[in-house]
Amino acid sequence: MAARSVSRAEAAKKFTLLEVNQTDGTNEERMMENAPKRYGRGLFLATVAGGLTSLAWGRPVWSHVSSALSSAEALVPLVPQGWRIYSVADHMPTFEPQTWQLSIDGLVKNKLTLSYEELRSLPAERQISTFHCVTGWTVKNVHWKGVRLKTIFDRALPYPSAHALQFVSAEIPYIDYLTLDQSLLPEVMLAYEMDGKPLSREHGAPLRLVIPEMYGYKGVKWLDRINLVPQAGDGYWELLGYDRDAWVGHSNGY
């Protein structure tokens, strides 16, 4: 499957910044029933349209861009254990448990199509980790439940030529990549529960990629396809200048 690409102008046009209070499920339900409210969109878009490829100029320039970005995000107040929710499409994808499927394709011996029930029947793991956003905010002690990618590999049987994974979101055109080695890190997970509950729509229901050692933009939400590919490529935000290997504290984040 060919990688989906996106221009900087398209990304700026579609980018949305939302706020969700993790501790108040009522607020999340209300957001699902009503059209999402946009906060500080104009200022944030000005930063994106200004060219995040400037990150390649070095940390002094990134510090300047990051400062402007923080000013935009400051328009969305954070509450204790709060989240800022990002979307690059006009609407967040919806989830129907009876029809949703996860496809495992590409360089594998056994192509898989898993229903939501089949996914949840696989051997599950639990972990507690910190979520880091590249723009500088974090949420600590997030409880995740889900499936390790090794469990998927044991069933799909990747070919020796498969050295990377392409993660495809139902939120078109969002994709991202990990190398095979990165996907096997101990805390990398395909998560379907957060803090003891199934993922909400805002948090990527029904399935999202969790990579605590990398910044959040690598954690593809609304995940519905994984392609095994020869090598890693550039995902949605990498095409706009972010690092492909988004290690917390060692890439172009805080």
Structure description:
This protein has 254 residues and is of the alpha+beta class. It has a single domain, classed as Alpha-Beta Complex (Sulfite Oxidase, Chain A, domain 2), CATH 3.90.420.10. It contains seven helices and twelve strands. The strands form three sheets. Strands 4-3-12-7-8 form a five-stranded mixed beta sheet. Strands 5, 6, 9, 10 and 11 form a five-stranded antiparallel beta sheet that branches. A two-stranded antiparallel sheet has the order 1-2. Helix 3 packs antiparallel against helix 4. The chain is globular. The N terminus is likely disordered.
Biggest sheet strand line-up = 4-3-12-7-8
Determine the number of helices (DSSP H or I, runs of at least 4 residues).
Answer: 7
- What is the CATH domain class? Alpha Beta
Q: Mean of the pLDDT scores?
A: 78
- What is the straight-line distance between the termini? 33 Å
List the helices and strands and how they pair.
Layout: H1 8-14, E1 16-21, H2 25-33, H3 41-49, H4 59-73, E2 82-87, E3 101-106, E4 112-115, H5 116-121, E5 125-132, E6 138-147, H6 149-156, E7 164-169, E8 175-179, H7 180-183, E9 189-194, E10 197-198, E11 208-210, E12 223-229
Parallel strand pairs: 3-12
Antiparallel strand pairs: 1-2, 3-4, 5-6, 6-9, 7-8, 7-12, 9-10, 9-11
Helix pairs in contact: 1-3, 3-4
